[in-house]
Write a structure and sequence with these properties.
- The chain has 282 residues and is of the alpha/beta class.
- Helices cover 33% and strands 20% of the residues.
- The protein has helices spanning 3-17, 62-70, 81-85, 93-113, 143-151, 192-195, 199-204, 224-227, 242-250, 272-281; strands at residues 23-27, 43-48, 53-57, 119-120, 136-139, 156-159, 167-168, 172-175, 186-190, 211-215, 233-239, 259-265.
- The chain has a 9-stranded mixed beta sheet with strand order 4-12-11-10-9-5-6-8-7. A 3-stranded antiparallel beta sheet has the order 1-2-3.
- The chain starts with a helix and ends with a helix.
Length: 282
Amino acid sequence: MSIIEDFIQLISSLERTFEVPKIEQIFFPSMEMNLADQNYNNFGAIKLQDDSIGIIYIGLNYDIKRKAQDYKTETLERINPYYLAKEVESKDLFRKTLAFGAINAICQSFLKQINYSFDFTTDSLGLLSLQEGDLVGMVGLFPPLLKRIEKMNIPLYIIEKKEHFVQKHKKWEVSLDPSLLNKCNKVLCTSTTVLNDSIDEILSHCQNAERISIIGPTAGFLPDPLFKRGIDVIGGTYVSYPSLFMERINQNKKWGNSTKKYCIQAKNYVGLTSLLKNLEKS
């Protein structure tokens, strides 16, 4: 079963039991926000009527950004987000991107409803517990994390899809070749590997990894489809002050204290079936 099929199954299971609040607002950043330096904001958001927020990544390509600009978001206000989430199977990458935002919003609302106990952490490296002797694989270039790992003097392979990122330094290398991950004992992936359908290929090269983490603002979904594939940790972003978050994302400002980072570990996760039983009791 593909990861998209697993997400469809997850959403179907939730829909049978969990009545999700309707969509209140959808925001996409303007491509003119930072016209002076061409540094466009790559994130949008879906806000539900209970203030749960699903973060959307629109930076995969220019076409997605362009469609986001033209999309009449008001047409989706007050609709059931399950309808939007089911478009995760769409061949249109923009529709699929929007669907994953809806999935994130639904899952965040569900976790709020069951009073899920988040493990908030400052470890932005997805609990990889890096140490001397490690060889790290990073799927997707995270410049701040690259600097942290570089300071630890730990060798690193960075796997990218964009050729202009390819470069080689003394302790790290950016490559288009995912087979380099076979050499790594710890792997850190961006959550966009789920969106762009590269996750299964990436994991096929991680057989020697003792620990694999997926992190990013768009990892707000329930982790079952990824834990099923051997991922150890999901690192997401919890919006603790929704109004402040929406204000800041609308102004293209850093989210700051409007959000918190959290990690869900496979070894501590009870699974969707058990969580749904908690919902029935609430």
